[in-house]
Amino acid sequence: xxxxxxxxxxxxxxxxxxxxxxxxxxxxxxxxxxxxxxxxxxxxxxxxxxxxxxxxxxxxxxxxxxxxxxxxxxxxxxxxxxxxxxxxxxxxxxxxxxxxxxxxxxxxxxxxxxxxxxxxxxxxxxxxxxxxxxxxxxxxxxxxxxxxxxxxxxxxxxxxxxxxxxxxxxxxxxxx
Length: 176
What we know:
- The protein has a domain at 27-55 and 82-175: STAT transcription factor, all-alpha domain (Glutathione S-transferase Yfyf (Class Pi), Chain A, domain 2).
- 76% of the residues lie in helices and 2% in strands.
- α2 runs antiparallel to α3 (83-116) and α3 (83-116) packs parallel to α5.
- A two-stranded antiparallel ribbon has the order 1-2.
- The protein has helices at 2-22, 27-57, 83-116, 127-149, 151-175, and strands spanning 63-64, 70-71.
- By secondary structure, it is mainly α.
């Protein structure tokens, strides 16, 4: 019994040390940090889509946009046409990175659901995850629309590769 008591004390001390080191911040802080990181990536992606549209539309200057908002001339508006493929490729990379964040969050949710079967706490609210997916798909379709509109400038070699990457993004989101 004495050996068991000593081992129990040692294990409780190790457990306290691990909790002190890893959990000095509440889980909600980590989740909030992840949400902010995703929303920043999504905003950056939306900005890229607007840059692509401004580059495609040419140096239109300032004026009312499609949605009635005021468009401010982008620094890339007077850029050369060869920058369009580069800008689109960067936007697709950012889209894929945002997709990876969503898929990671889905995987975490699935794991938490599995652990809930063993009695762990589980937050069943899918609204934040659904909002992430919907936001990402909305930007996906905006970017896809810009790519299709710029298909002539992209050429016969780059367009199929881009469309394949777009299909992969959407299919992985739907499948998972």
